[in-house]
Amino acid sequence: MSIFGIPYHAVEIEIPIDGQKFKKSLENETCPSQPWLKNLHGKYKFIGKITESSFKLTPTSKGTNTYLPLIRGKYQSDGLNTKIEVIFSMHPIAIFIMFGFFSFAEYLSIKKDGNFSFVFVAAFIAFHIMMYVIGFMPEVKKVIKFIEKELAAEDNVA
């Protein structure tokens, strides 16, 4: 389910590999924590935690992207296939930062002129939509493609 402009996307994926192989393949692409001042892009696809039935990840990025999705998922296997339920959302800290940034700009406008500025609201909405389109959704699509194609293909090679 996806509503344009809302950084939330839920999807169910079924891939033809065992749950343990899925977990192992995902672990091979995931760094448990972000090392200080090191960019992991190209070495790992994700940073986060993987358990026996769930995961909580963030994609690695070449640059800075406040709109990188927080990826939470659950998976279960029937021995042959693995069903994965994934929820993509904006990180709560990123929401707080964006809201604070634009609230502060609005506060300064009210303090200076004494009036609410619709220009800042329009700028915030335009910026949000732009970042949703170029920052959030491409990462969501990339992760879904990775799970459906690359992780499933790794089993066929082995």
Overview of this protein structure:
Helix content is 46%, strand content 25%. It has 158 residues and is α+β, with helices and mostly antiparallel strands. The chain has one domain (8-153): TATA-Binding Protein, CATH 3.30.310. Strands 1-6-5-4-3-2 form a six-stranded mixed β-sheet. The longest helix has 40 residues, at 118-157. The protein is elongated.
Features:
single chain; 158 residues; alpha+beta; TATA-Binding Protein; six-stranded mixed β-sheet; 25% strand; elongated
Strand order of the largest sheet: 1-6-5-4-3-2
**How many DSSP E strands?**
6
| Percentage of β-strand residues | 15-25%
Order of helices and strands: EHEEEEEHH
Terminus-to-terminus distance: 33 Å
Form type:
elongated
Structural class: alpha+beta
The percent of residues in helical segments reads 40-55%
Task: Please indicate the count of domains.
Answer: 1
CATH architecture: 2-Layer Sandwich
Low-confidence stretches: none
For the biggest sheet, the summary is: 6 strands, mixed
The CATH topology comes to TATA-Binding Protein
Mean pLDDT reading: 87
Q: What is the number of helical segments per DSSP (H or I, 4+ residues)?
A: 3
- Backbone CA Rg: 19 Å
Q: Regarding CATH, which class?
A: Alpha Beta
